[in-house]
Every structure is written in structure tokens, then in C-alpha cells.
Specification:
Order of helices and strands: EHEHHHEHEHEEHEHH
Number of domains: 1
Radius of gyration: 18 Å
Strand order of the largest sheet: 2-3-1-4-7
CATH topology: Rossmann fold
Largest sheet: 5 strands, parallel
Number of helices: 9
Structural class: alpha/beta
Distance between the termini: 11 Å
CATH superfamily: P-loop containing nucleotide triphosphate hydrolases
Helix content: 40-55%
Number of strands: 7
Length: 218
């Protein structure tokens, strides 16, 4: 099976992609991992990626597509994959189409994780991170034993700048403007399953698993 996970920030795409890939025995392909691996690898593509990343620029779609194509040609992706982080725009849908055509495969299902905007803001704005040991807490879901202090090393916790409420709302607006049209393309192809991501990760994982029932049993 070849599956793409999409959805707004804060819905748990990475968490669910890892769970699903493990359950299906497939490789998890995350764009962030691809970029980091490329820069560590010292290849020509990796050197190009480094130029953009170090300058604080977005990696162009064609370069990202080339990296994904190289990743999907690895033997561990031969039986399928769970991809998250790409595509996010209509242009990237076209890029992924070209990449998959070159590799000789197609997407079987697009899973779109959904949650109300208020829930996403609550999740992200309440997240706290330890700047020292990188432990992650949440003021509601996983509060530290002592408010504002890391349980593991005692450092003062911080909220990342991109978790501020106004920033989260801006990211949601970008998703609505750029990614919803990309999802609409896949919906018109009959590939989309929407899955409610509100609840414990295990509950969401079961909903996602059930949404794939026809593909798994077919």
C-alpha cells in the first residue's frame, strides 16, 4: 500500500504515520528526515539542499521531488510507504504525480486528519519544551510536576515561537489557502478518507486503520 497523510498542523500526522507504517510493515517517509539525511549524505542533491536550508529558504518543489523519488527507489519502499509532509500545495501534487510516475507506482489512499481549529490551537499553544533536554510537556495533557519546570532536568520550560496562538492561527490560514485545494484534487480522484484526530493517539490510530479497511482487505 502507498499512503499519504495530510492535514493541518497539530493533528498528529507524524505520530500516526509512524504507528500506521509499523502496523502495516511499511516504511515511514517523512520529508524532514529526507532533508536531514540528504544533508548528511554529502551527495550533489544534499549539497543543494544545504544551500537552501542554511540560507533560510524553502527547498524548491522540484528538488524536494527529486529527493522523494530517490528515497522511494530504495528497496525498503518496494512494498509501499506512508508519506507525510508532502504534498502541501497543488503544485506539489503535480510534482508528486511526476515522481511516482517515474518510479512506476501510484498512491492508493490519501488520509486527511481533521480537528477543529480551536482544538489545534489548544494543542499547540499549550505545548512547552525544555530548551536543555528537549523534553516536551503540555499544560493540559502532560503538565510537569512543578509548573513551568522540566521534570527531567529542572530547566525552565519555554513555548516555541511557532506555537504562539497568533502564529498557529496564521498556519491554519495557510493550510486552508494552500493545502485544501491540493486535497480537493485527490478528493476528485476518489482517494481521500477524512479521519477525526480528536482523542487519544490510540483511538485516532484505530479510526485511521478502519478507514483503510477496504484497501487492506482488497
Amino acid at each position: 500500500m502507498r499512503i499519504v497523510l495530510m492535514g493541518p498542523p497539530g493533528v498528529g500526522k507524524g505520530t500516526q504515520a509512524v504507528r500506521l507504517a509499523r502496523r502495516l510493515g511499511l516504511v515511514h517517509v517523512a520529508t524532514g528526515d529526507i532533508l536531514r539525511d540528504a544533508m548528511r549524505g554529502g551527495t550533489a542533491l544534499g549539497d543543494k539542499v544545504r544551500e537552501f536550508v542554511e540560507d533560510g529558504r524553502l527547498v524548491p518543489d522540484d528538488l524536494m521531488g527529486a529527493l522523494i523519488g530517490e528515497r522511494l527507489k530504495n528497496p525498503d519502499a518496494a512494498d509501499g510507504f506512508v508519506l507525510d509532509g508532502f504534498p502541501r500545495t497543488e503544485e506539489q501534487v503535480a510534482t508528486l504525480d511526476r515522481v511516482l510516475g517515474f518510479v512506476g507506482v501510484r498512491v492508493d489512499r490519501i488520509i486527511v486528519l481533521r480537528a477543529p481549529d480551536a482544538e489545534i490551537v489548544r494543542r499547540l499553544a499549550g505545548r512547552r519544551v525544555c530548551p536543555n533536554c528537549k523534553a516536551v510537556f503540555h499544560v493540559d495533557n502532560k503538565p510537569p510536576r512543578t509548573a513551568g519546570t522540566c521534570d527531567d532536568c529542572g530547566e525552565v520550560l519555554m513555548r516555541r515561537k511557532d506555537d504562539a496562538e497568533e502564529v498557529v492561527l496564521g498556519r491554519l490560514a495557510v493550510f486552508a489557502r494552500q493545502t485544501e485545494p491540493a486535497i480537493r484534487i485527490y478528493r476528485e480522484r476518489g482517494l481521500v478518507e477524512d479521519v477525526d484526530s480528536v482523542g487519544e493517539p490510540g483511538e485516532v490510530a484505530e479510526r485511521l486503520w478502519n478507514a483503510l479497511a477496504s484497501e487492506r482487505l482488497g
